[in-house]
């Protein structure tokens, strides 16, 4: 992989109807070969992935692909509280970021998503009036309901560690959300509308209308791809989508409390973009 160095990026606030959104724009180096909007992961996974997102953006920009790193409503340095964020609002943020970079570079942009950000990108690709040019998916969450259950379990674990009860399990927490009650989980206030949108997002039913490069990180070389990922990719192919499912060996940096790089993931992404049919 070429050294992405410390290429210049422009920081600014993008004015949207829902409020200002913090952005970092990495302009393409040399002739423009593409445009991408990065859609970050959920809650703490976002913070743990910031370095990889920056490294990836620099590497892509060095290959002539302009990248907009966008902080969604209530995340990072964008306006608003996380507890006010909704799924539909995040989808509007993605659309606003895409419109900005498309106007800036004069071409249809793709989306580059990580974890829940990848699921959000898939939903956008299925519902936008004009499909994105491509999807780059890093370890996508394919089932929002399952991911939400995992997030709810963080609260139960915290309650048990504090010596209390477990609030009646995930079903009781889901009932509270259904009753429009916000929940405090691992330092984040979960808006019932955000939870509902995440819960309803199921990648299997959302065959994107654009080429898809899907990168799945595995701990060891030769380890089989997760059956759930294979099933979703096969379902999308049956729906007419073009999907490349690429295994990459490396650490799960989005879960690590310390900063961890996964250079193989960036290398695989750049290599895929260099192939003639990508």
Automatic annotation (TrEMBL):
<dbReference type="GO" id="GO:0016787">
    <property type="term" value="F:hydrolase activity"/>
</dbReference>
<dbReference type="InterPro" id="IPR022742">
    <property type="entry name" value="Hydrolase_4"/>
</dbReference>
<feature type="domain" description="Serine aminopeptidase S33">
    <location>
        <begin position="31"/>
        <end position="153"/>
    </location>
</feature>
<protein>
    <submittedName>
        <fullName>Hydrolase 2, exosortase A system-associated</fullName>
    </submittedName>
</protein>
<dbReference type="InterPro" id="IPR029058">
    <property type="entry name" value="AB_hydrolase_fold"/>
</dbReference>
<dbReference type="InterPro" id="IPR017532">
    <property type="entry name" value="Hydrolase-2_PEP"/>
</dbReference>
<keyword id="KW-0378">Hydrolase</keyword>
<dbReference type="Pfam" id="PF12146">
    <property type="entry name" value="Hydrolase_4"/>
</dbReference>
């Amino acid at each position: 992989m070429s050294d992405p160095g410390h290429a210049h990026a422009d920081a600014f606030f993008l004015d949207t109807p829902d409020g200002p959104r913090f952005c970092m724009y990495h302009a393409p180096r040399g002739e423009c070969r593409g445009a991408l909007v990065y859609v970050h992961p959920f809650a703490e996974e976002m913070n743990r992935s910031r370095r990889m997102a920056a490294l990836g953006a620099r590497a892509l920009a060095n290959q002539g692909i302009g990248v907009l790193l966008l902080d969604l409503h209530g995340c990072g340095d964008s306006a608003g509280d996380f507890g006010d964020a909704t799924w539909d609002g995040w989808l509007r943020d993605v659309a606003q970021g895409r419109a900005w970079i498309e106007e800036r570079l004069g071409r249809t942009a793709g989306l580059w998503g990580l974890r829940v950000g990848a699921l959000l990108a898939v939903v956008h690709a299925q519902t936008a009036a004009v499909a994105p040019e491509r999807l780059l998916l890093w370890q996508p969450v394919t089932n929002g309901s399952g991911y939400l259950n995992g997030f709810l379990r963080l609260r139960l674990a915290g309650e048990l560690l504090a010596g209390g009860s477990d609030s009646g399990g995930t079903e009781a927490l889901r009932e509270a959300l259904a009753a429009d009650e916000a929940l405090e989980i691992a330092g984040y206030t979960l808006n019932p509308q955000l939870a509902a949108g995440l819960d309803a997002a199921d990648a299997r039913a959302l065959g994107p209308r654009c080429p898809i490069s899907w990168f799945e990180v595995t701990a060891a070389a030769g380890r089989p791809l997760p059956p759930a990922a294979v099933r979703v990719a096969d379902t999308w192919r049956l729906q007419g989508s073009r999907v490349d499912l690429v295994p990459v060996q490396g650490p799960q940096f989005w879960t690590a409390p310390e900063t961890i790089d996964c250079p193989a993931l960036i290398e695989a992404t750049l290599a895929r973009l260099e192939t003639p049919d990508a």
